[in-house]
Design brief:
CATH class of chain A: Mainly Alpha
Distance between the termini of chain A: 42 Å
CATH topology of chain A: ABC transporter involved in vitamin B12 uptake, BtuC
Largest interface: A-B, 45 and 48 residues
Number of helices of chain B: 14
Distance between the termini of chain B: 46 Å
CATH architecture of chain A: Orthogonal Bundle
Number of domains of chain A: 1
Largest sheet of chain A: 2 strands, antiparallel
Oligomer: heterodimer
Shape of chain B: globular
Mean pLDDT of chain B: 84
Strand content of chain B: under 5%
Order of helices and strands of chain A: HHHHEEEHHHHEHHH
Radius of gyration of chain B: 21 Å
Strand order of the largest sheet of chain A: 1-4
Strand order of the largest sheet of chain B: 1-2
């Protein structure tokens, strides 16, 4: 029983990381309608930017966070403007855009490899004492991750419900043509979507690196399938679904890892992913299918 | 001079193997529009199957553990690879192709590939875990008793024969009614369905064919290198094949071969004159991947049909000629439109 509760606790932390990443990926898919295979590499970018802030500006991980998140978002906008926008304007098939993001992924990953090499990197974080909270044991670091995730979810919720931008995003992902007809400025919307989505990736990357302690230029890409799993379980393009999907994938993988060979932790997520795709490709929580 | 000859021979052998794998992907993506991101899963299945069948029983205490080990000859190894590769493709395709849209299929095939990768790495009894299997016998090397260099020439000839067979098969498939209807599925599934054809079964046949060819490529790879381990089938390898096909020209088998020659050569030769920096040994490798990534993006942007575009079929050519005759000027190049853009 204790093992179960403990692993659920770990699951909540994993879920926090996945939720931040998943909501960002889902927002971007909803608005632009193609799968971004470079998303994991934006996470890795966030990790290395934090490292850079530490060595150049002598900022701690938490001090650097706003700067890193903003910069990752700007790189996202830049990538969209330089690479992807011309495909969208030409009316390319979403699959072509998907393949183009693989090119972007290769470039970001390899640029980080060229600058830092493939050795494991670490944030300079002090030791942290575990705290007992009811049946759970968390380190203060894990509580910060949890707090950041909750804060990010609240921000996204406020954005989607109460701002013009968020309403436009929801309109765009719900009925693309209709949204265009009523005069939503798509360039403005796409730029903001890329900024928010990749900024979330940057945040998720930093949080992932805090959680797992070490990383390489390939860490984000390796995490991408786990994010896909959460996003698809929740219904792709639906940010609220992604939050629930993250919770499910995070808890399932952590619980499974404590009862079986933890090397297969990710395999569990992939198996859930394939299962959901085959049985309910619109996601578990989708109220009505839209093809 | 001898060193150069050796170097070119090795490059040519890899180009042949790579071409076979790329033609396999061309049948899946170029012909039928199936977004398979698990290409190297099938290469790995072929390589492991070949290795397990041709190796002898694992010697206890020699540090390798794996199943089977029946010391079968090359041809049996090749057939085993094709069979297991085909069966795996059939199993995955039968459940995944029927219901999934392209982007979900891409994610599913990557997930399949990653699950196989985790199993191959963690189940040491199966294929010797992360260390992988080694000492895979090279075909006929024991019998021919050739020198190291001459054996390379022999293997090149063998690879060329295999590539010629695969190419002949792919060209026949392309021109056959089956190839034509696959392109129909790629362009508009609904139209093909409304003609009463079962598109799911057509796609499955293309997927299995491609899986078999990838597995044969994997078998040759294992036979030549003599070893295979999980680090040889990372997702990046699959994207490499994709880059080769898209840059060479998807839908055209010659384009697939050109890409398979070009991309690895660019990869190994394109960064030859960069200085190597001791503090970062991966620098050159990283630049190679940056070049491939940029090349992929630029190809999609400026020449989505690839270097050798798909040949318009006889009907398209005829209508184009007809239009040109009637209007008395050069027809719009509609036959050269990118197949998927």
């Amino acid at each position: 029983m204790t093992v179960l509760l403990l692993s659920i606790g770990f699951g909540l932390i994993t879920a926090s990381v996945i939720a931040i990443a998943g909501v960002g990926l889902s927002l971007q898919f909803g608005v632009t309608n193609f799968v971004n295979f470079a998303y994991g590499d934006f996470m890795t970018l966030g990790m290395y930017l934090t490292l850079l802030c530490g060595s150049v500006l002598h900022l701690t991980v938490y001090e650097a966070l706003p700067l890193v998140v903003g910069c990752t978002g700007l790189v996202g906008v830049l990538v969209n403007r330089l690479v992807l926008e011309s495909f969208t304007r030409r009316g390319s098939n979403p699959i072509i855009l998907l393949i183009a993001t693989i090119g972007v992924s290769l470039v970001i990953q390899s640029a980080l490899l060229a600058l830092w090499g493939s050795q494991f990197q670490k944030f300079a974080l002090g030791a942290s004492q575990p705290l007992h909270l009811g049946p759970f044991i968390f380190t203060p670091r894990q509580l910060i991750i949890l707090g950041l995730a909750v804060a990010a979810m609240i921000v996204i919720h406020v954005l989607l419900r109460y701002t013009r931008l968020g309403k436009a995003m929801r309109a765009m992902s719900d009925r693309r043509t209709l949204a265009r007809i009523v005069g939503i400025n798509t360039t403005w919307l796409t730029d903001w979507t890329w900024f928010i989505s990749t900024a979330m990736a940057g945040l998720a990357g930093v949080v992932l690196a805090i959680n797992t302690a070490s990383f390489t230029p390939f860490t984000g890409f390796g995490f991408l399938l786990v994010i896909f799993a959460a996003v698809i379980v929740g219904g792709i393009g639906k940010p609220y679904g992604a939050m629930l999907g993250a919770l499910i994938i995070g808890v399932i993988t952590s619980v499974a890892a404590s009862y079986m060979d933890s090397a297969y932790k990710d395999a569990i997520a992939f198996a859930v992913l394939i299962g959901v795709l085959l049985v309910r490709p619109q996601g578990i929580f989708a109220s009505r299918g839209r093809g | 001079m001898a060193a150069l000859g050796y170097y070119v021979t090795v490059l040519a052998i890899f180009a042949c193997i790579y071409s076979i794998i790329t033609i396999g992907l061309n049948i899946q993506w170029g012909f039928a529009g199936i977004l398979n991101f698990g290409v190297y899963a099938f290469v790995a299945i072929g390589a492991y199957s070949y290795g397990l069948v041709t190796l002898g029983k694992p010697i206890p205490g020699a540090g390798q553990s794996y199943i089977l080990g029946i010391h079968a000859p090359f041809v049996i190894g090749l057939l085993a690879a094709a069979l297991v590769g085909g069966l795996a493709a059939w199993a995955l395709g039968a459940i995944a192709l029927r219901r999934l849209r392209s982007d979900y299929l891409a994610i599913t095939t990557i997930a399949f590939s990653q699950i196989l990768w985790l199993i191959a790495g963690n189940e040491t009894w199966l294929v010797n875990g992360w260390d992988g299997i080694s000492g895979i016998p090279q075909p006929l090397n024991g019998m021919l008793k050739l020198s190291f260099n001459n054996y390379n020439f022999f293997f090149l000839a063998l690879s060329l024969v295999m590539l010629a067979l695969v190419m002949w098969f792919a060209q026949v498939t392309l021109r056959a009614p089956f190839g034509r209807i696959l392109r129909g599925v790629r362009e508009d599934e609904l139209v093909v369905e409304s003609f009463g054809r079962n598109t799911a079964s057509l796609k499955l046949r293309a997927f299995v064919t491609g899986g078999i060819l990838s597995a044969i490529g994997g078998a040759l790879l294992a036979a030549y290198v003599g070893a295979f381990n999980p680090s040889a089938f990372l997702v990046g390898e699959t994207f490499f094949v994709w880059a080769a096909l898209l840059i060479g020209g998807s839908g055209n088998n010659w384009g697939a071969i050109l890409g398979a020659i070009l991309v690895p050569v660019v990869f190994t030769e394109g960064t030859r004159f960069l200085p190597s920096i001791p503090s970062n040994p991966q620098l050159i490798e990283a630049f190679r991947y940056i070049i491939i990534g940029l090349l992929l993006i630029l190809t999609l942007k400026f020449r989505p049909q690839g270097i050798i575009p798909e040949r318009p079929d006889r009907f398209q050519r005829a209508t184009k000629r007809d239009r040109r005759l009637r209007t008395g000027r050069a027809a719009a190049p509609d036959g050269e439109e990118p197949p998927h853009a």
